[in-house]
Amino acid sequence: MSSKTWTLTVLCLVAFVTTFGAHIVAVNLPVYARQVGLGTLGIGLLISIYDFAEVFAKPLTGYIADRRGKVATMVVGLAIFSLASLLYLIVDPRLLLAIRLLQGLGAAAFSVVSLALVAESFSKERGRALGMYNAVKGAGYVLSPLIGGAIVVLHDFSAIFVACAAIGSAALLLALTLRDPRTDARPISSLTGAETTLDYMPNPADDDDDFDLRQMITAFGNRRMLPWYSVIIINMFFVGILFGFLAVYANKLGYDQMRVGLIVSACSLAYVLVQPFSGALADRFGPARIILAGLLLSGSGVMLLPFTSGMALGLVAILAGLGVGTVWTNCDTMVSTLADPETLASSMGAAGSFKEIGDMLGPLTIGAVAQIAGLRLGFILCGVLGLAAALAIAGIQRRHNVSIQA
C-alpha cells in the first residue's frame, strides 16, 4: 500500500468515527430515556448538544491545528472522544449530556482537521480523495443504527460507548502513523488571523459543518439568498428529526432496537444514495425545481410518519430520506449559482453554517412540541414547515422567474 493510499484510508476511518459517534447514540436514546425517565425534550437536547459542541469548537481547533500541527490536533481530538466514551461507563448515567458534550468537542477537532488533511495531502487528486472521504463518512449514517441496535439487543445501552471508544481508539492508533504533509504554497491570512497556506484551506463547499460568524452576518444582509438559506435550515431540520426521532417513534410502536436500526438505516441509505441522481436531475431541470420536489417529498413524509407502522413506516421513512437527500445536494448548487462571484466563498460557508443550525434546531423543536402535545403533533408541525417552505419557493419562482436550467 502506498503512503498516500494509507493516508487516505486512515483519514476515511476518522471521518467514519465522526458520523458513527454522533448517530449510534442518537438512534438508541429512547432506550436510555426509558432507563432514566427522560422526556422527548431531553432526547432532543442530547442529540443537539453534540452538534452544538462541534459548531463552536471547530474554529478554535482549526486555529490550534495551524499552530501545533494538524495530525497532533486530530490525535488529541480522537483521544478526547475515546476517553469521554469510556467515561460514561463509570459516571452516573444522568451525566450523559456532559459525555455527549465532550464527545462533540473531540469530534470537532478530528472531523475538521481530517478534512483539511485530505485537501492538503491530495492537491492533485482532491476531488477523488474527497469523494472517497465523504462516501466513508456517509457510511457512518447507514451502519451506526444497525450496529447500535444489535449492540443494545445483545448487551445494553452502555455497551454503545464501548464501541465508540473502540473505533475511536483504533483511528487514534492509526493516526499516529501519519505526518503533517509539507507544502510550498504561499501563506495567506485566515479570518482568525492564523498564518496558514493555500493547501491548508479546504473549499467551504467541501465541509457542511464550518461555522463563521462573519459569514453569517454577511449572509443576513443578502435578501436574495435568505429564502434559500431558510430552505437549508428546514432541510437539516428534517435530517435531525429523521435521524433522531424516527427512532423515538419506532420505539413507541414497540419495535426492538434491531428493527429500529433497520428502519433508520434504510432512511439513511436513501438519503446518501439519492444525492448523485438528484444532482443529475438538477442539471437537466434546474436545481430550484428539484429542491421544490424534495421539500414536498420530505415534508409529506414527515407528516405521514406518525400514521404508519410496519412496511408502510419503512417506505415512508425511505421517501422522506430521498427528499432530504435531494434538497441537501442541490441547495449548494442553488446557492453557488445565485451568489455574487466575489462573495461565493462567503455564501457557501454561510450555507454550511445554516445547515449546522438546522441540524440542532430539528431535534430540539420536535422534542419540545412532543413533550407538550405529543409526538404525532410534533411530526405534523415539522412537516407543515417543510410544505410551507416549498410553497414559498414556488412563489419566489413565479414572482422573480427564478428557474435555473442546466
Key terms for this structure?
406 residues; Growth Hormone, Chain: A; globular; mainly alpha; disordered C terminus
Structure in words:
The chain is mainly α and 406 residues long. It folds into 2 domains: 181 residues, MFS general substrate transporter like domains (Growth Hormone, Chain: A); 202 residues, MFS general substrate transporter like domains (Growth Hormone, Chain: A), CATH 1.20.1250.20. It is built from 14 helices and 2 strands, in the order H-H-H-H-H-H-H-E-E-H-H-H-H-H-H-H. Helix 3 packs antiparallel against helix 4 and helix 11 packs antiparallel against helix 12. It starts with a helix and ends in a 6-residue tail after the last helix.
SSE map:
Elements: H1 3-27, H2 29-36, H3 40-68, H4 70-87, H5 96-121, H6 126-154, H7 159-175, E1 187-189, E2 195-197, H8 213-220, H9 226-252, H10 257-285, H11 287-304, H12 310-338, H13 344-373, H14 375-400
Helix pairs in contact: 1-5, 1-6, 1-7, 3-4, 3-5, 3-9, 3-13, 4-5, 4-7, 5-6, 6-10, 8-13, 9-10, 9-11, 9-12, 9-13, 9-14, 10-11, 10-12, 11-12, 11-14, 12-13, 13-14
Q: Would you list the SSEs in sequence order as H and E?
A: HHHHHHHEEHHHHHHH
Order of neighbouring strands in the sheet with most strands: 1-2
Report the top-level CATH class of the largest domain: Mainly Alpha
Shape call: globular
Share of helix among residues? Answer: over 70%
Termini distance? Answer: 41 Å
Task: Let me know the number of strands.
Answer: 2
The portion of residues forming beta strands comes to: under 5%
Q: Can you tell me the residue ranges where pLDDT is under 50 for at least 5 consecutive residues?
A: 183-212, 402-406
Q: How many DSSP helices?
A: 14
Judged by helices, strands and strand pairing, the structural class is mainly alpha
Average pLDDT, all residues: 79
- Give the name of the CATH architecture of the largest domain: Up-down Bundle
CATH fold name of the largest domain: Growth Hormone, Chain: A
Output the radius of gyration.
20 Å
The major β-sheet equals: 2 strands, antiparallel
CATH homology superfamily name of the largest domain? MFS general substrate transporter like domains
